[in-house]
Automatic annotation (TrEMBL):
It comes from the Bacteria. Keywords: ATP-binding, Ligase, Nucleotide-binding. Pfam families: ATP-grasp_4, LAL_C2. Gene3D superfamilies: ATP-grasp fold, B domain. This is Biotin carboxylase. It comes from Amycolatopsis tolypomycina. The lineage of its organism: Bacteria, Bacillati, Actinomycetota, Actinomycetes, Pseudonocardiales. Coiled coil: none annotated.
Length: 389
């Protein structure tokens, strides 16, 4: 009997992956969800982001044939899919693993000192606790929401003046994490998990705006850390995923490679954002959507990459003292090596200050046979953005 997948607000790439696997497809769109194009199966409309229980009831009534599993590949979608699978007894990741990922302090406690040196941290519910934690951990330190995403609310404190300014703000609305500031190079690690274990797909190099908000401005994959550091990073990622109880599908783990080895920053039971899943496919032929669905249904998955290229994304930032120029996005997307270009800022308006991921002004994705070729493609495209049309 053919397997069935329930896909929550899927991109067209997710629907295409299910089609290649020969799966029966049910697409569920929330209000305002992007149209994934032609759906080779059943299309449902449901406010699943705010009413998971209603979606569970509706899916139960459908009595879908064959083995069934629900998939969502974003932050909200992965969580709701886990709830659906647990309540309906379908295979897949359970909510407990994703709850551990979301609570950064809980994840640190679960990992403990199994691999690498644990990061000094404290969880705070009030400004008074925040002040005591800052004093204990010392400067510099990072303060961020314990369940935050997209660089929202991340602040670096370099001394007493920064701490006083932070403590003079409003009372905390949610638990916050104070952690030591790590010195080193930050990477993300994309992995595919199954009951057999965890396979590292790629290590991704990242660039950020730096202090105080550390918003990501670019990613490149894959990068070679060397045999020793790569093995240590792989051990830390495996220990993290095991501690969370994560055994089905793609994950995105952020680590800092320091002078004393890799240190865990955070991890997520979903694909990396910022088009990292697209770059895995472009550079290495690794389709995380297809593999995630195959793993749940016990289908074979690749043991290694299908090709070896390099892919990257660069975010565009316009100066804040001038209006955003008119940009011919289609012409930029047609440049050599470029596979996608996007403008988020409004032409003619002043661009926002970049304090979190959603503030970024635009981006370009490209691929090349070598890192040098990739950087040439990206630089040409970014320059075309900043010149305008």
């Amino acid at each position: 009997m053919p397997e069935t997948v329930v896909l929550l607000n899927p991109r067209d790439l997710v629907v295409d992956a299910a089609r290649r696997l020969g799966l029966t497809v049910v697409v569920v769109l929330a209000p305002g969800g992007a149209d994934p194009g032609p759906v080779p199966g059943l299309l449902l409309h449901s406010p699943w982001t705010t009413d998971p229980g209603g979606l569970v009831a509706r899916l139960r009534e459908l009595d879908l044939p064959g083995p069934v599993s629900c998939f969502g590949f974003g932050e909200a979608g992965s969580s709701v899919a886990a709830v659906v699978n647990e309540r309906l007894g379908w295979p897949g990741t359970r909510p407990g693993a994703l709850e551990t990922f979301r609570d950064k302090a809980k994840l640190r406690a679960a990992v403990g000192d199994r691999a690498g040196v644990p990061v000094a941290h404290a969880v705070c519910d009030t400004l008074a606790e925040l002040g005591r934690a800052i004093a204990h951990i010392g400067f510099p330190c990072i303060v961020k929401p314990a369940d935050g995403t997209g660089s929202a609310g991340v602040t670096r404190l370099d001394g007493p003046a920064d701490a006083a300014a932070r403590l003079a703000g409003p009372e905390l609305e949610s638990p916050h994490l104070v952690e030591e500031f790590l010195q080193g190079t930050e990477y993300s690690v994309e992995a595919m998990s199954s009951p057999r274990g965890h396979r590292i797909l790629a290590v991704t190099e990242k660039a950020t705006t730096g202090a105080p908000h550390f918003v990501e401005t670019g990613h490149t994959l894959p990068v070679d850390l060397g045999a020793g550091p790569a093995a240590a990073v792989a051990d830390l990622v495996a220990a993290t995923l095991d501690a969370a109880g994560y055994h089905y599908g793609v994950s995105h783990t952020e680590v800092m490679l320091t002078g004393t080895g890799p240190r865990l920053i955070e991890s997520h039971g979903r694909p990396g954002g910022d088009r990292i899943s697209d770059m895995l496919r472009l550079a290495l032929g690794e389709d995380v959507f297809e593999q995630s669905m195959a793993v749940v249904f016990g289908r074979p998955t690749p043991d290694g990459p299908a090709r070896r290229r390099v892919a990257g994304i660069r975010y565009v930032t316009f100066p804040g003292d001038a209006p955003v120029p008119e940009v011919d996005v289609a012409a930029i997307a047609a440049l050599p090596g470029v596979v996608e270009a996007h403008l988020s800022a409004t032409p003619g308006a002043r661009p926002p200050s970049v304090r979190q991921s959603r503030d970024r002004h635009g981006f370009v994705v490209a691929a090349g046979d070598t890192r040098e070729e990739l950087e040439t493609h990206l630089a040409r495209a970014v320059a075309a953005f900043t010149r305008g049309s």
